TrEMBL record:
Region (Disordered): 1-34, 119-141
Source taxon at top rank: Eukaryota
Biased amino acid composition, Basic and acidic residues: 24-34
Protein name as catalogued: DUF6598 domain-containing protein
Domain DUF6598 residue range list: 184-429
Compositionally biased residues, Basic residues: 10-23
């Protein structure tokens, strides 16, 4: 209710409340149309999810661990909901294919704008090709074929890894028109949260988990093990030892998380598919960084993902080098704390494991450079990056803890010395903005 000031006899002033004018019929009809449009979009999303039990608006997988009650839903399509869509691998994929194929068609149109001189098949043809495929076909093969139809002409083979490395604009000037603090995906951890089909712990697991974003649509490696170097998972330690990403994952629209994991048998013929997934994560317009978890069931397992949407972030590439003393074993972690907001599940205490040698010696080269398993993280521009080391002098000695805190930059490097008592380590953080244009100058992945 607004207030007007009126003049009265004697020069005195008093405030007189007045009611807001009634809305016109046209304004009421516009509001009604907006509500109906929102309801229609929500019902359409629910309809797609109902077409197959493996496509969910809010992740609720029977038999899987539920998300925490205090986790906030994400925003997508203008709706306040968690937009995680799963392809489970056993049942029909009609609804998931419609969603994925629409994304393929959208990005196909974007590529045609870039290369107008080269003829391309209409997006409708791609849709017919996908719909004509056998619904009971292998989900990985279906996604592979859809990817090849849309992007192989521009980005190489389906198996190609991203040619864009980290630190693209650490030393070189960033183009103002494309390199900015970006919304990014932070992969904190991935674990085998449940098994079935007669599997028993421990499991020897190999295969890969990758992420594809719209920068170049190629594989950004998160986990990668060959059959000869598989990881042993136990009921007490179900987390995969992640090895990526190799560069920051830009989350401006839909990104895809793919998993192709296998349980090693006594012989290759006895190997079993543990998980085959292609999971789209729809871009969020939310301006706050937040943490969320999702669980996806496929083949013989349920995978648990702990992920973060990092708003307005820069890329940090971390290097650690021994400069005094030695350490036998230890664990190196990063924590990317952002600006705190009430009612939002924050990322302050969520650990990003850079290296955990367990009871093995910390790997380092002749120059003392420690070979971290992961070294690229995203940091909110208004937050901080904390590096923590828990190291032992010998296999039997107690752990010593050292910490360093860095303020993020848009370029250049930050330096600090991490003192763990019996040893000192120099920590270098290379900062860089991130660009959506994969054609900008890049450092090839090694």
């Amino acid at each position: 209710m607004e207030t007007v000031v009126a003049m009265v006899r004697g020069g005195r002033r008093k405030e007189k409340p007045v009611r807001q004018p009634k809305k016109t019929k046209a304004e009421l009809e516009d509001e009604k149309a907006e509500r109906e449009d929102l309801d229609r979009r929500f019902e359409e999303y629910l309809r797609l999810s109902a077409m197959a039990p493996d496509v969910e608006v809010v992740v609720k997988e029977e038999g899987a661990l539920p998300p925490s009650a205090d986790e906030e839903p994400q925003d997508c399509f203008g709706l306040d909901l968690c937009a995680i869509i799963g392809m489970k691998g056993e049942e029909k994929k009609a609804a998931a294919r419609l969603v994925l194929d629409a994304w393929l068609a959208e990005n196909n149109a974007r590529e045609r704008e870039v290369l107008k001189a080269e003829p391309m098949e209409p997006a409708a043809n791609n849709r017919r090709k996908v719909e004509e495929r056998n619904e009971d076909s292998d989900p990985e093969q279906w996604f592979r074929d859809g990817w090849a139809d849309s992007w192989s002409r521009f980005h190489g083979a389906y198996e190609d890894t991203t040619k864009l490395g980290p630190m693209r604009f650490t030393d070189d000037p960033a183009p103002e028109w494309s390199a900015l603090p970006r919304s990014t995906l932070q992969v904190f951890s991935v674990k085998v949260a449940g098994i079935r089909g007669g599997l028993r712990w421990p499991l020897d697991v190999f295969g890969n988990i990758v992420v594809r974003d719209s920068v170049d649509f190629n594989r950004n490696i998160i986990f990668n093990r060959s059959r000869d170097s598989c990881q042993t998972l136990t009921e007490e330690n179900q987390c995969l030892a992640l090895a990526g990403p190799t560069r920051g994952v830009v989350w401006c629209d839909t990104i895809i998380i793919e998993a192709n994991l296998t349980v090693k048998g006594t012989t290759e013929s006895e190997d079993k598919d543990l998980s085959v997934l292609a999971v789209p994560l729809i871009g969020s317009n939310n301006e706050d960084s937040r943490l969320f978890r999702c669980y996806e069931t496929s083949k013989l397992s349920t995978l648990g993902f702990t992920l973060g949407h990092i708003a307005g972030s820069v890329e940090a590439t971390i290097f650690v080098r021994l400069i005094n003393g030695s350490c036998f074993g230890g664990k190196f972690s990063a924590f990317a704390a952002g600006i705190r907001h009430r009612k939002v599940k924050r990322i302050h205490n969520e650990e990003i494991v850079l290296l955990d040698s367990g009871r093995e010696k910390v790997p380092n080269d002749d120059n003392g450079e420690i070979q971290l398993s992961r070294r690229v993280v995203s940091v909110e521009t208004g937050g901080v990056l904390k590096i923590k080391a828990c190291v032992r002098k010998t296999s039997e000695s107690d752990k010593m803890v050292g910490e360093l805190v860095f303020r993020p930059k848009k370029a250049e490097r930050s330096y600090g010395v991490l003192d763990a008592g019996f040893c000192k380590m120099q920590v270098t953080v290379a900062w860089s903005l991130m660009s959506l244009d994969g054609r900008c100058k890049y450092i090839a992945s090694q």
